[in-house]
Design goal:
The protein is 24% helix and 28% strand. The chain is α/β, with parallel strands linked by helices. The strands form four sheets. It has a seven-stranded mixed beta sheet with strand order 6-5-4-3-2-1-18. The longest helix has 14 residues, at 94-107.
């Protein structure tokens, strides 16, 4: 089974709090680490969670507000100090690429790794990473500045072969890959034997969507429809619904409505305002609409391939 995990490094909102760090998550996939947003404290959280700097290959920035990206210059500098090799790609807007390029060129001119910037166009859906088993898509969110969410989808997996039927019909090794991909088998007597005789269903292809920051927008549900795990910001509870709209954020119950409309498997809420002493109210209001809701917290790890 391939590896596909989500690690929560920070789930607070913009104003500092003693309970939560700013936004940062890490996707662990087949040995690679891919960071989503990089608030202050990201590199310290990586150490606490045992995530190796040397495995970090991609950093996806949702928008250019400080609580989502001010940890990036320090992290990139630390990677240079640790003599990290290979390539690190930062996915961000053109303005972000200019800003972070200037900062890293000033603070860590001598880098042991290659730093690349992948430019995201705001306001449109686009594939930003295409790996052999995984595709990452950026899609528009609706905040006070240009903002994108990210959808991580495993590609369809091959069918499982039935060894008993393969042996019984003396299927040549050269044809096994085609059968795993859905082809039938032409027997020596000319009969076309259906693929279903030789295979069992493929393993489930997991998916994860990251939505922060955004005002409640039903069209987002169409983009992430059917996702296994949806992270949706829930900065406020219902008592501050007006403030949420004014500031381009969502409430916990609005996040739950998106999860319900998207037919999501599970909902993960976060980006909590410091105005609340805990997340009990957020969780209760979300679960009233979408029962399978989890409250994000630093140190939480979710296995996206677990049953």
């Amino acid at each position: 089974m391939s590896e596909f995990k989500l690690h929560i490094l920070g789930c607070g909102s913009a104003t500092p709090s003693l309970r939560h760090l700013p936004s940062c998550q890490v996707i662990e996939y087949r040995g690679q680490l891919m960071m989503i947003d990089c608030g202050e404290g990201a590199q310290l959280s990586m150490r606490r969670m045992g995530l190796k700097f040397s495995r970090l290959t991609h950093i996806f920035i949702s928008h250019l507000h400080g609580d989502h990206c001010l940890g990036l210059p320090g992290l990139l500098s630390t990677l240079a100090l640790h003599q990290t090799g290979g390539t690190v790609t930062v996915h961000t807007f053109a303005e972000g690429a200019r800003l972070f390029s200037q900062l890293t060129d000033f603070f860590c001119r001598e880098r042991s790794y290659e730093l690349r910037f992948d430019i995201i166009e705001p306001g449109k859906r686009q594939t930003v990473l295409d790996l052999p088993g995984l595709e990452v898509e950026a899609f528009p969110l609706y905040h006070r500045v240009p903002t994108v969410g990210y959808l991580f989808r495993e590609k369809p997996k091959p069918l499982h072969l039935r060894s008993d039927m393969i042996q019984f019909h003396h299927v040549p090794v050269a044809q096994l890959q085609a059968i795993k991909e859905g082809a039938g088998f032409v027997a020596p007597d000319g009969r076309i034997l259906p693929n279903e005789m030789f295979t069992t269903p493929a393993d489930h292809s997991a998916s994860y969507a990251y939505c922060s920051d955004t005002v409640f927008t039903p069209s987002i549900a169409e983009i992430v429809d059917g996702v296994d795990l949806l992270y949706h910001e829930a900065t406020y509870a219902d008592d501050a619904a007006g403030k949420a709209r004014e500031r381009g954020h969502s409430t916990a119950s609005e996040a739950a409505r998106i999860a319900h409309m998207a037919h999501a498997g599970r909902l993960l809420i976060g980006h909590y305002s410091k105005a609340y002493p805990d997340e009990k109210r957020h969780l209760a209001e979300a679960r009233a609409i979408f029962p399978d809701t989890i409250a994000a917290n630093e140190g939480l790890t979710i296995d996206l391939l677990a049953d």
